[in-house]
């Protein structure tokens, strides 16, 4: 920036007279050209001073750059409007970037028209790839719709069933609401219970691990007990057929104790082998 625009006035021939100031370090000559350039995409403009063909005599305060050595701003509507079909398929960030390069190229401030067209071609190829993808989606959608069309009765039945389900839920919305509320209260109660019982649960988990180790060490005995339990339960079931009690006959009663050296000692307390206790 080498100066400021001070005043703009409209002349009788519909041209503008622009008064501006420049820094002492900026030297203007009779060949200096003035051009209106765009500073941004929302219409902001600035006055650009460029060296041109002509005399090298220095201009002084109050001198005028003739109309023949000026250049108006680009017509953005006409410039960008020609690319509207392309812009419609782009996102806002791509539109802004491409528009900025387009304006800079036509103002001679940025990339050449060739580089702009190269980027536009790249975007166009991307859109073409998307067009193929969209076409494939449409084909797949058409296949799905054709399949649904061939099963219109089943689809209609499914819709009717869904409608009945929604109506049923609507009729019981109060019950569902209450269930959710009760479920929330129950979850809170369970959380409180677990918090209170955490020390005991921790101990149970520890002891469970110990018991599991003992069972695994004697798994043959456990397997045998599980295999013989069904027969024992059947016998107990027959004994309790007359009511909620059991009738037993004492045939043998033997006490097992640990003797010397850990050897088992069996002591017979009662025994008979007649009547119901007679071996068969």
Descriptive key words:
3-stranded mixed sheet; 7 strands; 53% helix; 16% strand
Plain-language structure description:
By secondary structure, the chain is α+β, with helices and mostly antiparallel strands. The chain has three domains: 1-73, no CATH class; 75-171; 249-280, no CATH class. It has helices at 76-81, 84-87, 92-106, 113-150, 152-171, 173-196, 198-217, 219-239, and strands at residues 3-10, 16-22, 32-38, 45-51, 70-71, 252-258, 264-271. A three-stranded mixed sheet has the order 4-3-5, with no helix packed on it. It has a two-stranded antiparallel sheet with strand order 1-2. A hairpin with a 5-residue loop joins strand 6 (252-258) and strand 7. It is elongated, with a radius of gyration of 50 Å.
Assembly status: single chain
**Numbering strands along the chain, what is their spatial order in the largest sheet?**
4-3-5
Q: Biggest β-sheet, characterized?
A: 3 strands, mixed
Secondary structure class reads alpha+beta
Structurally, how many domains make up the residues?
Answer: 3
Return the string of H and E elements. EEEEEHHHHHHHHEE
Helical residue percent band:
40-55%
Strand content: 15-25%
Calculate Rg over CA atoms: 50 Å
Give the N-to-C terminal Cα separation: 123 Å
Beta strands, count: 7
Shape: elongated
Low-confidence stretches: none
Average residue pLDDT: 77
Q: What's the number of helices?
A: 8
């Amino acid at each position: 920036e080498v100066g400021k625009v001070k005043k703009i006035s409209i002349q009788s021939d519909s041209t503008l007279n622009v008064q501006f100031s420049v820094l002492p370090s900026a030297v203007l000559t009779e060949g200096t050209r003035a051009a209106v350039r765009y500073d941004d995409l929302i219409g902001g403009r600035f006055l650009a001073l460029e060296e041109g063909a002509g005399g090298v005599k220095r201009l002084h305060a109050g001198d005028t750059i003739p109309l023949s050595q000026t250049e108006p701003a680009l017509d953005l509507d006409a410039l960008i409007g020609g690319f509207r079909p392309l812009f419609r398929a782009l996102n806002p960030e791509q539109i802004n970037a491409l528009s900025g390069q387009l304006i800079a190229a036509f103002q001679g401030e940025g990339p050449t028209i060739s580089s702009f067209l190269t980027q536009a071609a790249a975007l166009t190829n991307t859109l073409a790839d998307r067009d193929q993808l969209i076409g494939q989606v449409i084909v797949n959608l058409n296949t799905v719709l054709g399949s649904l069309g061939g099963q219109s009765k089943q689809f209609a039945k499914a819709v009717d069933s869904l409608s009945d389900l929604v109506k049923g839920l609507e009729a019981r919305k109060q019950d569902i609401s209450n269930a959710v509320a009760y479920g929330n209260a129950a979850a809170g109660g369970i959380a409180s219970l677990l918090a209170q019982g955490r020390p005991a649960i921790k101990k149970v988990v520890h002891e469970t691990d110990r018991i599991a180790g003992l069972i695994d060490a004697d798994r043959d005995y456990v397997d045998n007990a599980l295999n013989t339990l069904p027969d024992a339960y059947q016998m107990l079931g027959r004994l309790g057929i007359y009511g909620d009690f059991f009738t037993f006959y004492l045939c043998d009663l033997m006490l097992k104790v640990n003797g010397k050296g850990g050897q088992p000692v069996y002591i017979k307390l009662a025994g008979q082998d007649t009547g119901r206790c007679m071996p068969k």
